Structures are given as C-alpha cells and as structure tokens.
Amino acid sequence: METGPEFAFIAQNIELAIAPVFLIAGIGALLNVLTSRLARVVDRGRALEAEIASEPEGEPREMHKAELAGLDVRMVRINRAIMLATLAALLICVVIVSLFTAEIVHVDLSTFIAGLFIGAMLALILGLISFMGEIAISAKSLRVTQQYRHKHRSRA
Question: What is the pTM of this model?
C-alpha cells in the first residue's frame, strides 16, 4: 500500500469529506419524511376530489373544497421543501467533489467551497422553514372540534 505524501493528502481529503457525507445522509432522511408527507397529502387530495365529484351542492361539499384548498397549499410547501433540500444535497456533493479536485489540481478553491457550503446551508434552512410552514398548516387543519374533545385529557 502506498504511503507517500500524495496518499496522505488523499486520506486527509477523505477525512474532510466525512462530515459532508453525514450531512447528505441527514438530508436524505429529511427527503424521506417530506416525500412520505407529500404522498399522504396527494392521497387525501385524490380522495377529496372523488368525494366532491359525487356530492350534491351543500355544506359538506364546501367543507371538502376548503380542505382541498388547504391541501394544495401544503403540497406547494412540501414540494418547495423537497426542491430546496435536494439543492442542498447537490451543493454538498459539489463541495465534496471540489475538495478532491482542489487537491488533485493543486488549486485553492477554499472561497468557492465555502460559498457552496453556505449556499447549501441556506437552501437547507429555507427548506426547513417551508417544512415548518407545512407542519403548521397541517396542525391547524387537524384541530379537533370542541364537541369531540374528551372532558379529561390523558396525562402524559
């Protein structure tokens, strides 16, 4: 096995790339959650569309239309969060490639790499904010009306 200076630099770059790889794994887990939520919203939207199509005009139909409008807003926010999280993961991948490229070509890309990482973090922050907005809409739409609430809540 080669243990010269070039090998040491490659080993050092691999060590530098480990943290971004863990970040990509975390973003992957977030994407899994987001796509699962999106699938549930889409399924509920399709079910509501079928109910609306089969219902006569009236209050239940209007309630379903209002719920469908809320689902549409949730879908937009989840899709935005997915796009931003994916962008963050892609930028982290470019950071890793840039780390190795800078070492192989012997070029200082530190400012470029820092910019990529900052961009990735901004994309991830915006994606998480969008996800938080979707969660807020979801929680608001799932409030149980007073008539269905138990008089005594279970103690946690």
Answer: 0.80
